Amino acid sequence: MSTRQRVRPGGRSARVQASVHTAVRELLEERGREALTVPLVAQRAGVTPSTIYRRWGTLQELLSDVAVERLRPDTAPEDHGDLRSDLTAWAEQFLDEMTSASGRAYIRDALLGDPDGDNAGQCSAYAAEQINVILARAADRGEHGPDVETVMDRIVAPMMYRILFRPAGLDAAYARRLVTELFGGRGKGGQ
Amino acid sequence: MSTRQRVRPGGRSARVQASVHTAVRELLEERGREALTVPLVAQRAGVTPSTIYRRWGTLQELLSDVAVERLRPDTAPEDHGDLRSDLTAWAEQFLDEMTSASGRAYIRDALLGDPDGDNAGQCSAYAAEQINVILARAADRGEHGPDVETVMDRIVAPMMYRILFRPAGLDAAYARRLVTELFGGRGKGGQ
DNA sequence: AGCCTAAAGCACAGTCCTTGCGTTAGCGGT
DNA sequence: ACCGCTAACGCAAGGACTGTGCTTTAGGCT
After folding, report:
1. Are A33 and A104 in the same domain?
2. At what angle do helices A59-71 and A49-56 cross, to 10 degrees?
3. Mean pLDDT, rounded, of chain A
4. Interface of B with A (CB under 8 A)
5. Is the CB of B166 under 7 A from strand C?
6. Can you say whether the dihedral through the CA atoms of B74, B132, B178, A77 is positive or negative?
C-alpha cells in the first residue's frame, strides 16, 4: 500500500490530512520524535486515533509522509551564471540542509516507514529534478556537462552516504571537493 | 545510549544476548519482519520481555543490533591478482548481497534503530575495512591506486544510495561501470 | 435536491510497553 | 576456595497503545 495520500483538495479528508501533518510537525519540534505517539498526534490534530491508523497504518508511515513533504524543495536552484557554480552552490545548500539534525531525521523517517521504497524514490526524484534544472540551464547556455546520472553518482550519492553512515566532519568543503573532482579535478583514481 | 552490547563472554548476559539474537534471526526468516514483536522474540529466546526492553529499549534497536552483526563481512575479499579485478569482484558481490530483499532490510534496520548513528558507522567501517585490505594488497604488489575515501565516494556510496533510494534496475553491470569510471574510464564529467 | 460512497467517529477488546521489586548469577577480592 | 557485591534477569501489574466492527457524517455526483 502506498502511503502517499491522494485526497481531493477542499474535502474533509484534505482537512484531516493537513491538520494531522501540521500536528506531527509541531509535536516534532516541541517534544521530539521519541515522545510522538499516534494518540498524541490525533489529539493535537483533533481527530481520533483510529482515523490515523486507518489512513496511515503506522506512526512511521505517517512520519515518512510528513518527511517527504518536508524534503520537497520549495524553490528552484539559484542561477550563478555557469554550470560549475550552480552545482557547487546547490551541493553546498543540499548538504547543509541535510546535515542538520532535523534534516537527517527527516531522511531517516522517509526511508523508514516505506515498505515499497516509494517515498525514498520520491526523495531521489526531487534531487534529480533540481539537478535537471541546473543541467538544462547549462545546456541553454551552450555548456556541455555531465548527465543527471553522473551527477547523482558523483555528488548526491556520496553526500547522502556520508550523511546517513558517517555524519561526522561534513562541511561545505566536502561538497565543493566533490564538484571539483567531477569537473576533472585531479581525481586520485586510475592506475 | 549505545545499543551495542559489551558483555563478557561466557556470562549469563552473553547467553541471553546470543539466544535473543538467534531468536530474532529465526523469526525474521520464519514470519517476516512485520510479525515480530518483543514478546514473541522473548518467548522464542526463553527470556522475559522486560529483559529485552531493558537491554535494548526498543524492537528497532534490537533489530539494528542484529542487522549490524549480520552485515559484518565474514571473509576477506578475494584476491584476483590486480587491484582493478579485486575491486570489481568485491563491488559485484557487495551489490549482489545488499540488493537482495533481506540485504536491504538489514541495511534499513541498521540505519533505523540507531539514535546516534553508531551502528550505521559500523556498517560503513566494515566496507572501509574490506577496501583497505584490497588497497593494501595492491600496494604490496607495487600498484598505486586511489585511497579509501575515494573508493568509498566513487564505488560504495553510489551503490548504497541506489540500494536505498532507487532499488530498481540494479545489477552487476552497474558495479562494473563504477569501477571502470573510477579507473579513468571516459567519465562524462568535465566541461 | 437527493442518493451514495468514502472517510471519520466511537467504543471496546487485545496486546504491548514500562517500571518497581525481589532474586540470582558470576565477577573480584581476600 | 570462599564470600560479598553488583549488574542483570524474572515476575507481576498498571497504564498506554494498537487495531477492528459498527455507526454516523460529509461531500461528490447525477
Report:
1. no
2. 70
3. 91
4. 83-84, 108, 111-112, 117, 120-121, 123-124, 143-147, 150, 152-154, 156-158, 160-162, 164-167, 178, 182-184, 187-191
5. no
6. positive
Best residue in A100, A153, A182 for a mutation probing chain B (most B CBs within 10 Å)? A153
Q: Which of B82, B80, B37 is nearest to B62 (CA)?
A: B37
Structural domain span for residue B175: 71-182
pLDDT of residue B7: 58
Instruction: Determine the Cα–Cα distance for residues B79 and A157; give it in Å rounded to an integer.
Output: 28
Residues B29 and B78 in one domain: no
Q: Place B189 in a pLDDT band, splitting at 50, 70 and 90.
A: very low
Residues 28-87 of A with CB under 7 A from strand C: 46-51, 54-55
The position carrying cell 515498505 is A115
Whether residue A8 has pLDDT greater than 60:
no
Long-range contacts of A16-23 (CB under 8 A, 24+ apart): A16/A45, A16/A47, A16/A51, A16/A55, A17/A55, A19/A45, A19/A46, A19/A47, A20/A45, A20/A47, A20/A51, A20/A52, A20/A62, A21/A65, A21/A66, A21/A69
Q: What is the DSSP letter of A46?
A: T
CB B59 within 7 Å, strand C: yes
- Structure confidence by residue, pLDDT tens digits, A89-106: 999 999 999 999 899 999
Are B161 and A150 in contact (CB < 8 Å)? no
**A157 to B161: CB separation less than 8 angstroms, yes or no:** yes
Residue B7 resides in a domain: no
Rounded to an integer, what distance in angstroms lies between the CA atom of residue A170 and that of residue A159? Answer: 9
Within a domain: residue B188?
Answer: no
- In the predicted structure, residue B185 carries a pLDDT above the cut 90: no
- At B3, is the secondary structure helix, strand, or coil? coil
Query: How distant is the alpha carbon of residue B39 from its chain centre?
Result: 27
